[in-house]
Amino acid sequence: MYVGDRGYTKRVCLADHIQPLLSGTMRRLLPLLLYFVHASAFAGGDHLPLGARSAGMGYTGLTHTDLWSVRLNPAGMAGVERPVAGLLYQQHFLSNELAQQGLAAVIPVGKGAFGVSADRFGYSLYTESRVGVGYAMRFGDGLRAGIQLNHVGIRLGENYGNSSALTAELGVQARLTKELWLGAHLYNPTQALLGSTGEGGVVVEERVPTLLRVGLTYTFSTKLQMLVEAEKDIDQAERFRIGMEYNPNKVLFLRTGISTGPVQAHFGAGFRVKQLDIDLAMAVRSQLGPTPVIGINYRFK
Predict the structure, then answer these.
(1) Residue 284 sits in which domain range?
(2) What's the whole-number mean pLDDT along residues 106-119?
(3) Which of 47, 57, 167, 187 has most Cβ atoms within 10 angstroms of its Cβ?
C-alpha cells in the first residue's frame, strides 16, 4: 500500500488486485479494511483545498476571493462581487475510482456573501461526501471574516454502514500593505468525531483532523502575484506551499507551484471568456503520477 496526495492509501488498486481472489466472508471484510486504511489517513490530517485554480498554484489560495473560497477560506467569499456558480472534476492519479466531483455557489448579499458547496470522492465500496454552508462579511476595504459549517460523511459498501460528523471552520483575510494580504483558516476547532458501527457490531472511531493554515500573498503588479502558505495539523508535521499566478492579458492566466507532504509539482492555466471561467490544472507526484483537475465557473450579471 502507498499513500496518495489526498492522504488516501492507493486502496482501489489494491482492491482491484485482491478482490477477485476473495470470496464469502473475506470479500465482505474488504470494505471494513478500506475504512481502517482511510481512518488512519484521514486522521493524519488530509483535508486538501478544492479548486482548479488552487491546484495549479500548489494548493495555495487562502487570500483568494473567488468561488472556491468555500473550500479554501470562507472569508474570501466576502470579496466576491457577483453571484457565481461552478463545477469541478479531478481524477487522482488518473484512476476512475479515485475521482472527485464538486459544485459550489456564492451569492453576495449587502456587505457579505453566502456560499454553499458539495463534493463527492470514491467508488462503490467507499465514498466520501462533504456539504458545506457558509457566510462571510467585509469590515471595510482591508478585512474579511467568514464562518462555515460542514457535514462530512463516509459510506462503506457491503453493508458496513455509514459514518458522519459536523465540522466548523473559521477564516480571516487582512490587508497588511497595499501589496500584501494575510489569510488564515482554522478547520474543525471542535475536533469532531467520525464513528461507524458496521457488520458484526464493529465500531470504528476517528477524529476529523484539526488544521490551521496561514498564508501571505504579495502582488508584484496587476499581472503577477506570489503566495506562500503553511499548514499545521495538531497531530502531524507542518506542510508548506508556494504558488504563482501570471496573467499576461485579460483572458489568460498561467499558474505554477509546489507543495510538500508529500512533495508535488503543480501547473495550471485559466481562461476568462466573458462571464465564463475555465481553469485547468495538474498536480504531479513522482511515484504515483498526475492528478488532472478541471473547473468551470459562471459569473452572473
Answers:
(1) 11-299
(2) 96
(3) 57
